[in-house]
Every structure is written in C-alpha cells, then in structure tokens.
Amino acid sequence: MTPIDFYAACMLGGVFSCGLTHTGLTPLDLLKCNMQANPSKYRSIRGGFGKLVNKHGVGALFTGWLPTLLGYSAQGAFKFGFYEFFKLSYSGILGHTNAEENRTLIHLAGSASAEFIADIALCPFEAVKIRVQTQSDFTKGFLEVLAEILAAEGFKGLYKGLLPLWGRQIPYTMVKFASYESVVENIYKYALPIPREDCPQAWQLGVSFAAGYIAGISCAVVSHPADNLISLLNNCNGTTVRDAIKKLGVVALFTRGLPLRILMVGTLTGAQHGIYDAFKVFTGMPTAGPPTVMLRRSSQQERA
Fold first, then answer.
1. For residue 291, what pLDDT is reported?
2. Closest CA to 17 of 218, 300, 276
3. Do 139 and 189 meet the contact criterion of CB atoms below 8 Å apart?
4. CATH H-level superfamily of 3-303
5. 143, exposed or middle or buried, with CB in 10 Å at 0-12, 13-18, 19+?
6. Residue 236 has pLDDT above 80, yes or no
7. What is the DSSP letter of 285?
8. Which of 27-36, 84-93, 248-257 is predicted with the least confidence, judged by mean pLDDT?
C-alpha cells in the first residue's frame, strides 16, 4: 500500500466511522441540543424524549440527520486521515527512540493538528444542524435553514461558532486519541494473555470498542462546557460567547446535559473506533496496537 493509498483509506474509514455513528445517534443529539438551548422545556432524558415524541412524532427524532451526516463525514475524513498523517510525520521528525519515549506527546500533537483542520470543514454544517434541531416546530430543513442563516448573517454566520467548536473539539480529540491509544496499549499489555498480532480479529475489534468507550467518557467531560456554548451561540442570533456564559452560568456551563452527553459520546467514540478499525482490517491494515506498530508503519512508508 502506497502512502497515498494509506491516507485515502484512513480518510474513507473516518467518513464511515464519524458520519454513520453521529447520524445514528441523531435522536440523542437532538435531545441534548434542546436540553442545552431550552432547559425549561427539556429537563430530563426520559421526559425530554416523551415531549419530543408527543409533540412532533417519532419521525422527528431524526431531525437534523442530513447536516449531521454531511458535517461529520467531512470531519471524520480530515480527523482520522490527518491524525495518521501527523502522527507518522511527528514520529519521523523525532526519530525512532524519541518517538517511542514521547508517544503520548505525538498522539496529543497529531490529534490537535488534525482536529484544527477537521473543524473548519464541520463548522458550517454544525451551525445549520443546531438551528434545525432547536427550532420550535421542526418544519424547516437543511437548505431552508442554510438560506436563512446566509440571508440574516452572511457567510460569517456559519462560522461564528468556530472558536467554541475548536474549544470543544480540539481538547476532546486530544483526550480521545491519547487516552484511546493508552488504553489499547494497556489492555494488550496487562489484560490479554497473548500479543495483539496473535489475537483473533474479533478480540482486536472488541478492544477497539472498549478503549474507545472509555476514551469517550473522558473527552465528553473535558469538552462539555464548549459544547454548551456552541448550542447557545448557534441557537440565538447575535449572541456572543460572553453573553452566552452570563446567560448560562458557570455551574450550568459544566453540568447542563452532561449525563446525556457522556452516554452519547461514550457510545459514539466506542463505535467510531470499532468501525474505523474494522475498515482498516477490511483494507488490509492492522488494528490499533502498541507503539511499535505505529513506528513500523512509519518506517515502511518512508522506504516506499
């Protein structure tokens, strides 16, 4: 596999892992956004789902699925593709020994660099998605809301949430990938009786899902305040970050909608890594494993 083929496969795997999982969890995301933007109406998970179904019908639970699919497919391609690129590039810059000793730093730097790019692709779709999901009657679709934002605020209206999005997604992704890599390594080191290469593929994919779920819980907590800000900014015309924080309050900034987001992000991240590694197996690449796997791939690509 050439480097171009390798990165193209990683990007395609990212499309599947992020686009499909986020779209599949649209009902949870819909409720989360409404609990953040309209807390007086949606106070609990059970009650919130009940209100949504009673008022709008079961079909309304997938409101916003199109911008979700488009946005997170684009984000997933850049997130996973560039993560692999930056991870291997930074490893090559440091050299084998230094990369081995500083692998957590490589995972943090690689994921931050990748997410910075991925969020530029995601931001317009996220702005439309939140507006679609938090409108009172759920009657406006993707194109109609997009046209409204452009008419009222111009192109900058699609990117007014970019800074909070970076504030949510970059720490989220840094924790996600660094903790995921660490959990995977420790599972193979301490929990399984045989090396990764000798484990059945079903075991390897199970490790990917379990490590992803654990990583998802951590990054949900870290990124939750910024997630609350994004929901408010994209739901209210003209609202600034300062106004949003003042309106929400510091305690609510960290806690409003957190249990639902932990459930959503844990499931989401576990499924993403499971799907991504399953796609890698399908294309002939190894699943996530100890750092020697990363370094060996880097050396093979340099020789190619």
1. 47
2. 276
3. no
4. Mitochondrial carrier domain (1.50.40.10)
5. exposed
6. no
7. P
8. 248-257
